[in-house]
Amino acid sequence: MVDRPRATASLLSLVLAASLAGCSSAAEEGGAGEAAGRRASEPAISTDFTQRNMIITAVCSRENGSVVNLDGWHPQSWEHLAHAEFRLPDTAVAEHDSSEPNTAVRRLCEPGELPTDAGDVTVVRSLFDQDFTKMAVVTEDPRTGATHVGYVDRTGKFTDLTGNQDFGNTPHEHNAAFARDGSAVWFTYEVTDEPGTSTKDRIASRALAGDHKPVDRFEVSTAQNLVMVGSTPSQAVMANSAFLSPDGRRLLAEGYVLDVPAQAQGVGPDLVEKGRYLACDYGWLDDDTVLCGENGRYAALDIAPGAKPGPPILPSNDHRNSAMVISPDGGRFAFLSQKGAALDYYLCDTKPGSTPQKVERTGKFSTLGDTAAFIEWR
Predict the structure, then answer these.
(1) CA separation (Å) from 263 to 131, 235, 259, 271?
(2) Of 27, 28, 136, 279, which has fewest CB within 10 angstroms of its CB?
(3) CA atoms of 267 and 269, how far apart (whole Å)
(4) What digits encode the pLDDT tens for the residues 23-70?
(5) CA 51, 57, 58, 61 torsion: positive or negative?
(6) What is the pTM of this model?
């Protein structure tokens, strides 16, 4: 497996400026007219995440319950293009004292668990459907210890896909992830053949339509994070990071590259580790080239056997850099850079010898604080 550095700053809540209310009295008519004029010049932020040339960020707020805020930004001007929020039910697992139950929501909401690099990005991205209309969650019953999977929409409505169970085994369903087409939530669960015997981990899915009965998929040696790749149909990959090549033929996961299995239900850790190890796990620049860490300076690597990484992309530096997302054309990437206690976002071309450009904290973008999960560049 590939270890990655993790930034250690606290997430700050995303605060949106409230619209000014107009005054109705005749005495304040002039002020109301001016306010109306200002509102007319400040169009409402779109809820449409289908727009292209957009970087999407995710931040968790814990001030009044758990709320996950998504925002879309123009990658040149950093204009605020889109916004949506998902208010989680009170029983949703957002942080926990132990390692179980596991959910990618903890990467966003739990203190000390900061989604800063590409591996975290793929796990958090898998919480959502293609255009960010729904979010997968894991809930826990504090009385019985049962854990269910379900989803919440933008109105805050929660749908429990596990539902009420007949008398029998208590459900323990973790690692909820959304199929990109929004048709199902995938998850991991534990199976015990006989009382007192060891448990086994398996992958299953519950469709949003119909009776939501689980469809068993395959067994895995250990339950990690579920990453959903592709669109129709989605592939479920049990890994801490997974990226599908632009042509859909290859998978980069945990630093290994392998051909996408024909008609496979999903890809478990055993199959991942049968691939060829590249020690590169930041994503694809094109169908045959991936982005490697190379001591924090980054480099392109052709996946052909025996190929060596190219010249460094970044200049020599003593920063702690964590790559997050790559542009759709493979020409640029975004990364978080830490120097001492200072944290800054940068964009950089993927050509060797490029100079990174710091993202200035101005306008709405300044409200994101020191860290945020850059979960997609579309």
Answers:
(1) 25, 10, 12, 14
(2) 27
(3) 7
(4) 333 334 444 444 444 344 446 789 999 999 999 999 999 888 899 999
(5) negative
(6) 0.85
